[in-house]
């Protein structure tokens, strides 16, 4: 059964191949986190707000012991270009954390998308959108979150947290080679059988590469499990 691995939201589709898109989406999400943190600490001055956020980040291990950021950094807005115009991830993560601790919850499509970007980047990956939403506590409107995830899940990009594994399959889609961490290794393994002069000839006969994506830290175990299943068929 095909499993979609979730690590980032679909609306940052092509995150690895389109850095401009990534910057824009990150800035948009960061703006929501910083804005909600500021709203939750309206009774504090800008400098005291910066001290509170920095100390929280240090306590949580997000950043090493350091002086507080400048209060003006919390007035950052999603404009400008390049990494220098974006806040650090630890600042954004702390801002979202503190806003949530103060009682803030996403309430519309935009804030849900921004919140889930933060949640998945901080706590993911999850095996499905439903798993991601169910990982939230009951203080969140999970029904609203599920709607958002259902709308996006079929457009999810393959995340940098996943890696492809490949094998060669025949015309009936049954494996005729073991799985490897690259399609080239799968081809070479198949071609050692000597049934075809080239892989192009095998493709003409209906053979093809099957590629699946698994979480990086599960690659070795996934390959071992699948290859054990394949080898068992020929015992």
On the 0-100 scale, what is the average pLDDT?
Answer: 80
Can you give the helix content as a percent range?
40-55%
Could you give a short account of the major beta sheet?
2 strands, antiparallel
Number of domains: 2
Please state the oligomeric state of the protein chains shown.
Answer: single chain
- What order do the helices and strands follow? HHHHHHEHHEH
- Give the percentage of residues in beta strands: 5-15%
Spatial separation of the terminal alpha carbons: 24 Å
Structural class: mainly alpha
Task: Write down the Rg.
Answer: 23 Å
Indicate the overall shape: elongated
Widest sheet: strand ordering: 1-2
Describe this structure in words.
The chain is mainly α and about 240 residues long. The chain has nine helices and two strands. It has helices at about 20-40, 45-60, 90-100, 110-125, 130-135, 140-150, 185-190, 200-205, 220-235; strands spanning about 160-170, 210-215. The chain has a two-stranded antiparallel sheet with strand order 1-2. The chain is elongated and about 75 Å long.
């Amino acid at each position: 059964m095909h499993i979609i691995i979730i690590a980032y939201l679909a609306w940052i589709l092509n995150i690895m191949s389109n850095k401009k898109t990534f910057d824009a989406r990150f800035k948009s999400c960061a703006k929501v986190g910083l804005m909600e943190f500021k709203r939750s600490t309206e009774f504090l001055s800008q400098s005291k707000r910066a001290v509170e956020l920095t100390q929280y980040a240090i306590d949580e291990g997000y950043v090493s012991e350091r002086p507080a950021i400048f209060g003006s950094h919390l007035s950052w807005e999603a404009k400008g270009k390049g990494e220098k115009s974006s806040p650090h991830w630890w600042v954004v993560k702390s801002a979202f954390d503190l806003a949530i601790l103060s009682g803030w919850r996403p309430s519309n499509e935009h804030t849900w998308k921004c919140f889930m970007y933060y949640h998945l980047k901080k706590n993911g990956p999850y095996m499905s959108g439903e798993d991601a939403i169910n990982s939230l506590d009951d203080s969140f409107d999970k029904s609203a979150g599920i709607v958002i995830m259902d709308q996006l899940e079929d457009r999810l990009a393959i995340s940098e947290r996943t890696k492809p594994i490949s094998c060669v399959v025949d015309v009936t889609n049954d494996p005729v080679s073991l799985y490897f961490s690259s399609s080239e290794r799968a081809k070479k393994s198949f071609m050692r059988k000597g049934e075809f002069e080239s892989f192009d000839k095998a493709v003409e006969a209906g053979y093809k590469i099957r590629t699946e994506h698994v979480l990086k830290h599960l690659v070795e175990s996934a390959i071992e499990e699948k290859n054990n299943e394949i080898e068992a068929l020929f015992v």
